Automatic annotation (TrEMBL):
It comes from Daphnia pulex. It is a multi-pass membrane protein. GO terms for molecular function: mannose-ethanolamine phosphotransferase activity. This is GPI ethanolamine phosphate transferase 3, catalytic subunit. PANTHER family: GPI ETHANOLAMINE PHOSPHATE TRANSFERASE 3, PHOSPHATIDYLINOSITOL GLYCAN. It holds the Pfam family Phosphodiest.
């Protein structure tokens, strides 16, 4: 028997590993990083003369476009609370000194990936989001390394994520911690303290300031809370200070790295998350910018634009295009300035040469990438023809002669129509190259995914077969062949999909066909197998995936009650427990959050939010307080009735309550929050001491092995761990945790003394999933609390 189990285990492990490997190979796409660097004299990255002596980049984390754009509506009551809090931007636009864009991010919209995008010009892949919390020094060629290699200096202040990515790029740096999302002031006040004094120093060329207050306010309160306009007005004052200390040869870029959802989260690809704001200003500009029409640029376009403006090589892996209005602002001049037509021609020639350098750099990257990676042949040939056409048009213009001799005279510049023809051809190439790469790195390998799912599904059938079939002597060799075949299919997975499937699945089919005669049909339709089958079938529909929490809720309620209709006799206690379990499950439904795809039909509610982040009427606060009070009473009655309760745990619970009270009081009075630091520390000290004590008594201090004593100690451990979960989740989710605990108690009481476990495990799995969704989570990137 032991040898048989070992064979079965080995075969199943090999098959599952095979299926998962193929699925991940097709689903978790990666982009190969190229660690080559651009150089000023490599024949491609020839630099132009810099247009600005100094550039200031102010990154306001999570600055959504509609936070930045001015709302001219005459109906003031219809203007959202987060709009029109940056009036300095509208003033500078009216003074003809600035331009405003939507700054479109590539998902995933997490800060680490966005910083990589706006410094390397590269596009992310789906799996890149996993490096948001821990990332090594950026090895890919980037704008900061090019600046330092060119002998220029960078000063930085703000989010310490920059120091993780670029530890040796800054002449001076003032980093501040970034992952304490409850702290909305420390980073911003640090930036305000250092920014203007650093601007006054003469030894910098690029100054980067990264503020986190808007992002943390969104995470803590949401964009529609009264704290958000206060934080945006702080940013408005900061921009005013910067503008008042700038000289005509300095360029200011104010931008967001991503946006935020209605709940203040980010990470996905919804419009609110990808549409950040971008504002550029220079005192030396005198331009006419049309603010009535929304214009958009890609975040990766910032990299080649900064490279051209600073006169440095464009990073090797960049896929962005130079931004017309920043490199060529003269084209925004009023039409009533004919006397400066020669300046316009010189600027147009400058922009054309910048486009040419950009085009050569991207084509070099595509050639290098295609040598060692699978690049679609048809698309590559199409891009090759587009590149050849752009180069041919540029060579006909003889732009080099023009740029060398036209610094004061435009007579040698090419005619406008020829310049425009080249500019159009180059922009078409740059746009198509970026879109092809974006689609290539977002295109799933359906063949590998299908192979993985096929192997995994057949493995599940084989696994189920092992659970119910009787051993057949002549089938033993098939298991050996199955293990060998699964192992070989892993080794040759890159050769042929047909060979892979044959090696993996032929022994599986032989075994299933040989044993199906011994299996009765009724065994295939057991209650135990129904829940996993229904859940798996629901994932084949996009609508069911979006509404997955409600599918789980429906199945959980169904599996609570369906067994009652197949029993001849049921005790009253069974009815009472099932009613109570059904009620707790239904109450958990009230805490489900909306997915981004469900707006606007799904209305966000405030039940899961912390008390100090509520901004509604008094009845909302009253409802939340009532919910918390009822939850505490239910918690006490439940454990008093069913489980022994250690009164020492009350002290830990009191610490949590005091922490919540102080948290709300500090929010109302805007006072010092030092108590918010020491109360959790006190909690952790008491918690660790109590946990060690409970574990010791559980292992070494049992009275004659009495089951009741074990029951009491396990109950104390559960309650103790629950207090930790409640502290970490906050007062907003405390009722959900109490509901989950109530469900655990009712579930254990329901199946106490039950000999048939067929209905227990499917219901346990569904209730676990239900608790996951009730705690405000979703199986989507956009709902991960970054």
């Amino acid at each position: 028997m032991k040898k048989r189990n070992l064979l079965v285990f080995s075969w199943l492990i090999m098959l599952y590993a095979n299926g998962v490997m193929y699925f991940l190979q097709g689903f978790l796409l990666t982009r190969r990083e190229i660690h080559l660097k651009s150089a000023a004299f490599d024949g491609v990255s020839c630099c132009l003369e810099s247009k600005y002596e100094k550039i200031i980049i102010l990154i306001i984390d999570a600055l959504r476009y509609d936070f930045l754009a001015y709302n001219n509506s005459t109906n003031k009551s219809s203007i959202p609370i987060y709009q029109n809090n940056l009036p300095v931007v509208e003033k500078l636009l009216k003074d003809n000194h600035g331009v405003l864009y939507q700054f479109v991010a590539d998902p995933p919209t997490s800060t680490m990936q966005r910083l990589k995008g706006i410094t390397t010009g590269s596009l992310p892949t789906f799996i890149d989001v996993g490096s948001n919390f821990a990332s090594d020094e950026l090895k890919e060629d980037n704008i900061l390394s090019q600046i330092t290699s060119s002998g220029l200096n960078i000063t930085f202040m703000g989010d310490d994520t920059w120091l993780q990515l670029f530890p040796r790029s800054f002449q001076r740096s003032f980093p501040f911690p970034s992952f304490d999302v409850w702290d909305i002031h420390t980073v911003d006040r640090g930036v305000e303290q250092h920014l203007v004094p650093e601007m006054m120093k003469p030894d910098w060329n690029l100054l980067i300031a990264h503020c986190l207050g808007v992002d943390h306010t969104g995470h803590r309160y949401g964009p529609e809370h009264p704290v958000m306009p206060l934080k945006l007005k702080e940013m408005n004052s900061l921009i005013e200070k910067i503008v008042s200390n700038m000289d005509p040869q300095t360029l200011l870029l104010v931008m967001g790295d991503h946006g935020m959802t209605r709940s203040g989260d980010h990470g996905g690809d919804s419009p609110d998350e990808v549409n950040a704001g971008f504002f550029a200003y220079s005192p030396g500009w005198n331009i006419k910018f049309n603010t009535s029409k929304t214009r958009a640029i890609n975040q990766v376009d910032l990299v080649p634009t900064l490279s051209v403006l600073l006169g440095i090589p464009i990073p090797y892996s960049n896929l962005g295009s130079v931004i017309l209005d920043l490199v060529f602002p003269e084209q925004l001049w009023s039409q009533t300035r004919p006397s400066e037509e020669h300046v316009m021609k010189i600027a147009q020639s400058y922009f054309s040469e910048a486009l040419y350098l950009n085009t050569k750099q991207i084509w070099r990257y595509l050639e290098t990438y295609s040598r060692d990676s699978s690049f679609p042949k048809k698309e590559f040939e199409h891009l090759s023809s587009q590149f050849d056409r752009a180069v041919h048009l540029f060579e006909r213009l003889q732009m080099k002669q023009c740029s060398n001799s036209c610094t004061s005279d435009s007579s040698c510049c090419a005619p406008d129509e020829k310049l425009e023809e080249f500019i159009q051809a180059a922009q078409i190439f740059l746009t198509e190259a970026k879109e092809i790469c974006r689609s290539m790195w977002a295109r799933f390998d359906l063949t590998s995914i299908s192979i993985g799912l096929t192997i995994f599904t057949c493995s599940l059938f084989l696994h189920a077969n092992f659970l119910i079939e009787s051993e057949l002597t002549w089938m033993k060799p098939v298991k050996y062949f199955g293990i060998i075949g699964a192992f070989l299919s892993i080794l040759v997975h890159s050769w042929s999909s047909v060979l892979t499937l044959g090696l993996s699945l032929t022994p599986v089919f032989v075994y299933l066909v040989g044993t199906m005669r011994k299996i009765r049909l009724q065994q295939l339709f057991k209650f135990t197998y129904l829940a996993p089958f229904v859940m798996a079938a629901s994932y084949t529909s996009n609508s069911f995936v979006v509404e997955e929490p409600y599918v789980v809720h429906y199945l959980a309620q169904s599996f609570i009650w369906i067994p009652m209709f197949f029993r001849r006799q049921t005790k009253n206690r069974q009815w009472i427990l099932r009613i109570a379990l059904s009620l707790t499950t239904r109450l958990g439904l009230a805490f489900f959050r909306c997915r981004e795809e469900q707006f606007p039909t799904c209305e966000a509610h405030s039940l899961h939010r912390s008390l100090n982040s509520l901004s509604g009427t008094n009845w909302i606060v009253f409802a939340r307080v009532s919910t918390a009070l009822v939850s505490c009473i239910a918690f006490y009655l439940l454990y008093k009735r069913y489980l022994p309760f250690d009164r020492k745990n009350l002290f830990i619970v009191m610490i949590v309550w005091c922490y919540w009270i102080l948290q709300s009081a500090c929010f109302l009075t805007d006072s010092d929050t030092i108590g918010l630091v020491y109360l959790p520390r006190l909690f952790y000290i008491v918690f660790i001491v109590k946990l060690c004590h409970d574990i010791y008594t559980f292992l070494f201090d049992n009275e004659l092995g009495k089951m009741s004593n074990y029951r009491k100690k396990i109950s104390n451990l559960v309650i103790l761990l629950s207090t930790l979960a409640i502290l970490l989740a906050g007062d907003g989710l405390a009722p959900v945790i109490i509901l989950a605990l109530a469900s655990i108690v009712l579930f254990s009481q329901l199946f106490t003394g039950e000999s048939n476990c067929g209905e227990m495990w499917p219901l346990y799995g569904l209730l676990s999933l239900h608790g996951f969704f009730a705690s405000g989570h979703h199986t989507s990137l956009a709902n991960i609390p970054w």
